[in-house]
Write a structure and sequence with these properties.
This protein has helices spanning about 1-20, 90-95, and strands at about 30-35, 40-50, 55-60, 65-70, 75, 115-120, 125-135, 140-145, 150-155, 160. It has about 160 residues and is of the alpha+beta class. The longest helix is centred in the first third of the chain and has 20 residues, at about 1-20.
Length: about 160
């Protein structure tokens, strides 16, 4: 009678190990899709709490929206520029913007592909080059002297000026 129980426990343990070992392992700095209220948003992994819990910063949002998330909410890495869905209504209102701005209210970018800029990141300025226009008020930039894993989509509000 004891043998079937031990086999069941061993099978359960091996299944759990297989499920957790097959998951992507994420690192600080990874650009990932994170599920929030039924939609996927681009975010950066900014801290690892443990093997299955990460602190993320949602791209284009203030740091007050940073959140600890489990692996189940991380939907994969993002390669290249990402276009996020519009913010949920409560987030847009909290940020002081119209939850559903019309396309005609968006200004075209004042930057072009190839422009050399100074970009603010966590209180410091970095030399960057515009790789692509990623959407209204959004630029895909490459930080000079850094690998492409640090390329990111930034809001024009983080651009200090052209170089």
């Amino acid at each position: 009678m004891e043998q079937p129980r031990q086999r069941l426990q061993l099978t359960a343990a091996l299944t759990m190990f297989a499920l957790t070992s097959c998951r992507d392992q994420y690192r600080i700095g990874d650009y990932v899709w994170v599920e929030w209220e039924g939609r996927d948003y681009p975010a950066y992994v900014v801290d690892q709490k443990n093997k299955t819990r990460f602190r993320v910063h949602f791209d284009g949002y203030e740091s007050r929206w940073d959140e600890d998330v489990t692996l189940e909410r991380i939907k994969g890495r993002i390669e290249g520029p990402a276009s996020a869905p519009p913010p949920p209504e409560k987030v847009a209102r909290a940020m002081g913007s119209d939850p559903k701005p019309s396309a005609s209210t968006r200004a075209p970018s004042s930057f072009n592909v190839g422009d050399r800029l100074r970009v603010r990141w966590r209180g410091s300025l970095y030399a960057a080059t515009v790789q692509a226009l990623a959407g209204p008020g959004k630029l895909l930039v490459h930080y000079e002297g850094y690998g492409t894993e640090w390329d990111e989509v930034v809001g024009e509000d983080r651009v200090v000026g052209k170089r």
